[in-house]
């Protein structure tokens, strides 16, 4: 990696370390520590996602016009303020407002950082660059969750305030690191024309919505994020604490198991993914997650000991991690390979927006996971099987090079160098 890429990856890891302190414990913090109940906790998750839904539709255009660096800086400051305010809030109104700011900041960072990685990579190195990003993010997330699980105490609200304070500082650290990054080039808007004449004309969003392969990828992405991250951070945590009797410290260990699976499997999985069709890899993830939901159901049946329930719950998070390791070098590079020249920010923002829409609906699983646990598990077994089916349908819309870049080595047929760029130089998309 070059110096710019190393700094981007380091900033990602440090930010994820801060987020790991709070992600597994937000439900407990709002519902139990602040005594506001499960519906208030559900509202906080929805507010977190709504903040992203408000900001993301405008983010892609700003990234493509102004570059990703100022977008990352603004988002980091907003997220830091939201995290600090959330840790100090005691009532439902300030908690919701803080969650809005934190959600908007975190969501806007995603397409901006992804665009920085695209600019600092080539089609030949992009798959590994995104795999490294995911590896570093989850390493930081898992370490943060493991340490945070040992710090939190439901009887000491100040321990949660400390966690949110650490998260706020880490966002500012990201901003400081990104300020030192020198991007390899600036966006050239005059060259930002669609490669496909059928996509010419209209706004960026209109062209994107006429791109059939991208639309199908967005639908698939929605289902993936709804079935994994939308439940991972809300419904599954509620299921574990309410139905399976999982303690807060066990949630921390489950997150660490998720990260451990990624750390162990990421680069072994990467070798497999680089030589396989992306659509088939995503379909396999759907099957792996189906098994994960079956095991999660076992943890809530109550037929075994508390230790067996905890082991099953932790295994569920580990299997999710293996699936995530397979998706990290697959989804983000595919978005970049589908993006018209000069529109990578727009496409990254659209994909991030779909993720946040899934997260906004994900907390609807909290009452189901806590109150009707077996129906909750059965629903997401079906959803995971749906991921496999949708992935196979997407594969029919992709060119051979988009579905399996190894067929053409470093030359991506549907993704040529930008005008004036030399072979091997980083390009915008």
TrEMBL record:
<feature type="transmembrane region" description="Helical">
    <location>
        <begin position="213"/>
        <end position="232"/>
    </location>
</feature>
<feature type="transmembrane region" description="Helical">
    <location>
        <begin position="68"/>
        <end position="89"/>
    </location>
</feature>
<feature type="transmembrane region" description="Helical">
    <location>
        <begin position="131"/>
        <end position="152"/>
    </location>
</feature>
<protein>
    <submittedName>
        <fullName>MFS transporter</fullName>
    </submittedName>
</protein>
<keyword id="KW-0472">Membrane</keyword>
<feature type="transmembrane region" description="Helical">
    <location>
        <begin position="95"/>
        <end position="119"/>
    </location>
</feature>
<keyword id="KW-1003">Cell membrane</keyword>
<feature type="transmembrane region" description="Helical">
    <location>
        <begin position="252"/>
        <end position="269"/>
    </location>
</feature>
<keyword id="KW-0812">Transmembrane</keyword>
<dbReference type="InterPro" id="IPR050171">
    <property type="entry name" value="MFS_Transporters"/>
</dbReference>
<dbReference type="InterPro" id="IPR036259">
    <property type="entry name" value="MFS_trans_sf"/>
</dbReference>
<keyword id="KW-0813">Transport</keyword>
<feature type="transmembrane region" description="Helical">
    <location>
        <begin position="36"/>
        <end position="56"/>
    </location>
</feature>
<feature type="transmembrane region" description="Helical">
    <location>
        <begin position="374"/>
        <end position="392"/>
    </location>
</feature>
<feature type="domain" description="Major facilitator superfamily (MFS) profile">
    <location>
        <begin position="4"/>
        <end position="396"/>
    </location>
</feature>
<feature type="transmembrane region" description="Helical">
    <location>
        <begin position="158"/>
        <end position="181"/>
    </location>
</feature>
<dbReference type="InterPro" id="IPR020846">
    <property type="entry name" value="MFS_dom"/>
</dbReference>
<dbReference type="InterPro" id="IPR011701">
    <property type="entry name" value="MFS"/>
</dbReference>
<feature type="transmembrane region" description="Helical">
    <location>
        <begin position="281"/>
        <end position="301"/>
    </location>
</feature>
<dbReference type="Pfam" id="PF07690">
    <property type="entry name" value="MFS_1"/>
</dbReference>
<feature type="transmembrane region" description="Helical">
    <location>
        <begin position="12"/>
        <end position="30"/>
    </location>
</feature>
<keyword id="KW-1133">Transmembrane helix</keyword>
